[in-house]
Design brief:
The complex is a heterodimer. Chain A has 16 helices and 6 strands. Chain A is mainly alpha-helical. Chain A folds into 2 domains: about 100 residues, Enolase-like, domain 1, CATH 3.30.390; about 270 residues, Orthogonal Bundle (Cytochrome-c3 Hydrogenase, chain B), CATH 1.10.645.10. In chain A, the strands form 2 sheets. Chain A has a 3-stranded antiparallel β-sheet with strand order 1-2-3. Chain A has a 3-stranded antiparallel β-sheet with strand order 4-5-6. In chain A, a hairpin with a 7-residue loop joins strand 5 and strand 6. The longest helix of chain A has 30 residues. Chain A starts with about 20 loop residues before the first strand and ends with a helix. By secondary structure, chain B is of the alpha/beta class. Chain B is about 35% helix and about 10% strand. Chain B has a 4-stranded parallel β-sheet. In chain B, helix 3 links the parallel strand 2 and strand 3. Classes of the chains: A mainly alpha, B alpha/beta. The interface between A and B is large, with 41 and 36 residues.
């Protein structure tokens, strides 16, 4: 029997000795390619996986419960720690939900900066994916190259908001800061260099015999399966379904931008890897268009809505009413109207959205995070069956799951 | 031990010989710290970045190992949940002596911003910690500095691990 306060691991209860010629092995939670804290209990027949059970909850931090005891602005930095590889995507999804709940219009300059940051985060996340995926499969040099490139992208993030990993660069109602001097030039240099580097990774991998052997026809998901398991993002587009929320339900400036949605019909890991590479090029293309949009915008960064958003520092220092509003917003927090909202966004990993139910209080009554990785982890129990044990690592890598947002 | 106080006649000059052995062993131990790849949450990404090309910890003899049996340092990088805590202790126990622990990031130090039902409020409740490393998430430079501090600590320790005081977990 389990003693609840002693918390003995569940595999103590598993029967590892079998009579039916199968072997049960435990994978994780401490495994270099478990992407954080995934634990799998695999039942093997020889080298073939017969049954796979993903066990999650090793990074459960109670983030959704925390949201119920925090004001809306207080909770924003916590969303950084969900998908910690692309923090801005989480900040943005949360801020967008609250903005829809209130009915805020974000100034155009803030929209341009937000979209830029989102795409930069997509590049960071995809570079991280290719680095870890290649490392798991056995290509060490790609890890080193991709991390070099990722550091330059993180430098750009750091120049903007001061943090490398946990950005909080998007606020409810806009962005806190304008772009620093010289940032645009650095960004252009980076986006011009990026396609060359992506080409280099492709030269290293796409025609590489070992890479192809490890990835081709591994982790095959049919279109029906992908849909019924709730896949989104590259996992869905890798199975031949052209679905990108940036195109289907455009938010921010995506309806004004020109970019392509790459789709692969191969349904396997190799196809998905190619999609990630192509998406990085598309992100660079989007950023180049945004750079041209930026000078044409008014220098206004936060939405004007005295009931919910504090006024600018200058107004606060000169107008008594603005200061009073700010005091109330800081001490009590904003009170969105009653109602609930769910807005899907296309995070680097798939559909990310926050469901918020508000009762008119400064705290959310309920906050639910729809994280793409959670659904992709669930898919593992079907995806792993019938594969060889050596492919398990490839398949975990190709799903691109992050445990911050699986366990929350 | 001051040299003039050593009684060379007794113990066959052993004290001098032992300090030299200490130095030699500590030199070896401190310059080849092999950490366990024990990424728990966000800090793990910074830990990977420190193994990556820009920070390149390999040049300092810090090579990440995947098995607790091959590693000397456990870098607890990220939030330790209660569900995971028993694994953390088990991994610590599996490491061979001498072993050290670095607690990386606010979550590992004190629970940080996650003061909830699910998280351990500081990994020092589970394993004895040598270096606490502040930040959320700490930069790779911070981890670098922590490893340098640990090297300093190891050099001042006795080579015989039984002489070194460790935090007694039974007191907590």
């Amino acid at each position: 029997m389990q003693v609840t306060n002693k918390l003995s691991p569940f595999f103590e209860n598993l029967n590892f000795e079998r009579d039916d010629n199968t072997m049960v092995i435990n994978f994780g939670p401490q495994h270099p390619s478990a992407h954080g804290q995934l634990r799998l209990v695999l039942e093997l027949d020889g080298e073939e996986v017969v049954k796979a059970l993903p066990d999650i909850g090793y990074l459960h931090r109670g983030i959704e419960k925390m949201a119920e005891n925090m004001t809306y602005n207080e909770f924003l930095p916590t969303t950084d720690r969900l998908d910690y590889i692309a923090s801005t995507a989480n900040n943005y999804a949360y801020a967008l939900s609250v903005e829809r709940l209130i009915g805020l219009e974000v100034p155009r300059r803030a929209q341009v900066i937000r979209t830029m940051l989102l795409e930069l985060n997509r590049i960071i996340s995809h570079l991280f994916f290719i680095a870890t995926h290649a490392l798991d499969v056995g290509a060490m040099s790609v890890f080193l190259y991709a991390f070099r490139e990722r550091e330059f992208a993180m430098d750009l993030m750091e120049d903007y908001c001061g943090a490398r990993l946990t950005h909080s660069a998007v606020r409810i109602g806009g962005v806190p800061l304008d772009l620093p001097d010289g940032w645009i030039e650095n960004m252009i240099t980076y986006t011009q260099k990026l396609p060359e580097n992506v080409k280099m990774y492709e030269d290293l991998l796409t025609e590489n015999r070992i890479w192809k052997m490890r990835l081709e026809d591994v982790g095959t998901i049919s279109a029906e399966n992908a849909m019924s398991w709730g896949c989104s993002g590259v996992m869905l587009r890798g199975s031949g379904i052209k679905y990108d929320i940036r195109k289907e339900e455009p938010y921010e400036l995506y309806s004004e931008l020109n970019f392509d949605i790459p789709v692969s019909n191969s349904c396997d890991s190799l196809g998905r890897y190619k999609l990630y590479m192509e998406e990085m090029r598309q992100s660079a293309r989007i950023i180049e268009q945004l750079v041209l949009m930026y000078p044409k915008t008014e220098p206004k960064l936060m939405a004007h809505s005295p009931q919910y958003i504090s006024a600018s520092k200058e107004e606060m220092m000169t107008q008594n009413y603005a200061l009073m509003q700010h005091f109330v917003l800081v001490t009590q927090g904003m009170r969105p109207p009653k109602g609930d909202v769910y807005v899907p966004t296309e995070s680097p990993k798939g559909e990310l959205g926050f469901y918020i139910k508000s009762e008119g209080e400064p705290y959310a009554y309920r906050l639910k995070c729809r994280a793409p990785s959670f659904y992709h982890t669930g898919l593992l129990q079907e995806l792993l069956v019938g594969t060889y044990i050596a492919d398990v690592v490839t398949i975990i890598g190709t799903t691109n799951i992050v445990f911050g947002e699986v366990d929350r | 031990m001051a040299q003039h106080k050593v009684d060379f006649a007794s113990n066959a000059g052993l004290p001098i010989a032992l300090t030299s052995v200490d130095k030699l062993l500590n030199w070896g131990r401190s310059n080849s710290l092999w950490p366990l790849t024990y990424g728990l949450a966000c800090c793990a990404i910074e830990m990977m970045a420190s193994g990556g090309s820009r920070y390149d910890f390999d040049r300092m003899g810090t090579i990440f190992r995947a098995s607790p049996r091959q590693s000397d340092v456990m870098i607890l990088a990220g939030t330790l949940s209660k569900k995971h805590s028993e694994f953390a202790r088990r991994l610590y126990d599996q490491m061979t002596e001498p072993k050290w622990v670095i607690s990386m990031g606010s979550c590992a130090n004190t629970g940080g911003m996650f003061n909830t039902y699910a998280t351990v409020q500081g990994v020092d409740r589970i394993v004895p910690v040598d270096i606490y490393l502040p930040g959320c998430a700490p930069r790779p430079e911070t981890l670098q500095y922590a490893l340098m501090m640990l090297q300093k600590k190891i050099r001042s320790e006795s080579a015989n691990m039984n002489n070194n005081k460790k935090q007694d977990l039974r007191l907590i």
